[in-house]
UniProtKB/TrEMBL annotation:
Annotated InterPro entries: Motility-assoc_lipoprot_GldH (IPR020018)
Secretion signal span: 1-19
Designated gene of the protein: gldH
Keyword Transmembrane helix: no
Organism of this sequence: Oceanihabitans sediminis
Keywords: Lipoprotein, Signal
Highest taxon of source: Bacteria
Protein known as: Gliding motility lipoprotein GldH
Length: 162
């Protein structure tokens, strides 16, 4: 009887901790050993509705092989009826002393990075969101061909709670 109650309490705790009432979309894609300059990480998202506001995040996981203190990415939203929005974004990935930002207790750090705030899916249908790395080294014309240290790229969409 005592084990049953303990098991039930553990199950309920797990259930309530894992519930996420604001998350509408939360998907990661693992990368091979490097993130090639030509590799576009694509996500297909069905518009949840055309009236509510949503916050969008780029989620990244990096390990100790990441050798930069920032990250440049290009994010493109392709709307169902042909409209496109393209943004070049920069995110800080490490403190000045080299310590990585993000959460995690192991050598993998996870970063939840703001992308769009108050975004409204103005068209019903399927949106495609593309993310590509756009890193450059100081003094060099060409971009970093194979970016090391980024292990996963994700997209998270949360419904705004009023």
């Amino acid at each position: 009887m005592r084990n049953s109650i303990s098991l039930l309490l553990l199950g309920l705790t797990f259930f309530f901790v894992s519930c996420d009432s604001t998350g509408v979309f939360d998907v990661y894609q693992s990368l091979p050993d490097t993130w090639s300059k030509d590799h576009v990480v694509a996500f297909k998202v069905a518009a949840p509705d055309t009236t509510n506001k949503y916050n969008m995040f780029v989620n990244l996981r990096n390990n100790q092989d990441y050798k930069y203190n920032n990250l440049f990415i290009i994010v493109e939203i392709n709307f169902p009826h042909g409209k496109t929005i393209k943004d070049t974004l920069e995110y800080k990935m490490a403190k000045p002393n080299g310590e990585f930002l993000g959460t995690g207790f192991s050598s993998i750090k996870e970063n939840k990075l703001w992308y769009k705030e108050d975004f409204i899916f103005t068209e019903m249908g399927e949106y495609q969101i593309n993310i590509e790395q756009a890193m450059r080294e100081n003094g060099k014309v060409h971009g970093v061909k194979d970016l090391e240290g980024i292990t996963d790229v994700g997209l998270r969409i949360e419904k705004q709670m009023n």
